[in-house]
């Protein structure tokens, strides 16, 4: 078994743990932000007494993954208004879910939320699992973090959570400078979160720790002087007093401590507390080019209509609608791009499309989490009736308003 980490990276003093909980919770009670999913004062009580309700925490936590609070609020309110109960969500169609989710990104989240609600209704007799272990085991799309958040906030289980904000706070509190995305460090942080969580107010404690990371212990310019737990923070002490009071890297595990910064990247005093956390460099995103064509016709009332087609039901942007698009190989000449797009459109239209007729509009760049996508945008006006081939994937003509109300991605709206 690996040796336990040195004491400086742990919370091993019960008196310090108790003081940290007290200070953090008192700050949270004073300063917490008003967020719609906190409006239900008795969130836990409501969840316990009304098992048919869709747990607010579940929806908000799934929406908040990789997404800013300010963006989520409107989506969250519309979602809860439309599907307040597990039953209502279970009966929704994927199309409705995608329409409401349109613009929020990472579309599989909405789909899996709905699949999980169906599972609760059809296989678990409408009863949400109530422990982190069961939530993670039984519900699709619910990982360790979301399970911990639902179990602690909705059902009062004394279990910790570790998200990006908590990683930052804990790494600073305990001077953890090893790669914070490595499984070994993540495991230690979970252990730490489980030790720290307040036994009588676990949901509030977890939210307080995340709130601290979101509002005070922020990535670039943390507000250490206002921080309610600064007296427990080793990074802060190190910044204030230098290494006389806090053992240096070399004192910890004699240079091979698994939680200290690597010997090649020691403490940089110009960075202060932002020496922590550290992450291995990200892989560069994949570069992709896609030709897309906005096909336009006159609708029966004379208003322009545009053709949108549905993407496959799995993979990137699964089930969403888009203008007919074709991924391109890199370094294709423009003329060749046009020809390939014209051939692709011909398959949809069932009639020849002249490459020359495609009007180049411009390029749109959209960054997905791991893909740097450039859409090369063309347009084409069609005269007369167009019969679409029903054997191909679903397609439909929409007005501009209908386009915006459809389940289309932000990238397509930019196009
Ligand atoms: Fe973060 Fe500064 Fe507070 Fe430490 S003192 S937890 S670095 S805000």
TrEMBL record:
InterPro entries: DNA_glycosylase, Endonuclease-III-like_CS2, Endonuclease3_FeS-loop_motif, HhH-GPD_domain, HhH_base_excis_C, HhH_motif, MIG/MutY, MutY_C. Its EC number is 3.2.2.31. It is found in: Mitochondrion; Nucleus. The keyword Nucleotide-binding does not apply. Keywords: 4Fe-4S, DNA damage, DNA repair, Glycosidase, Hydrolase, Iron, Iron-sulfur, Membrane, Metal-binding, Mitochondrion, Nucleus, Transmembrane, Transmembrane helix. CDD domains: ENDO3c, NUDIX_DNA_Glycosylase_C-MutY. Belongs to the Nth/MutY family. This is Adenine DNA glycosylase.
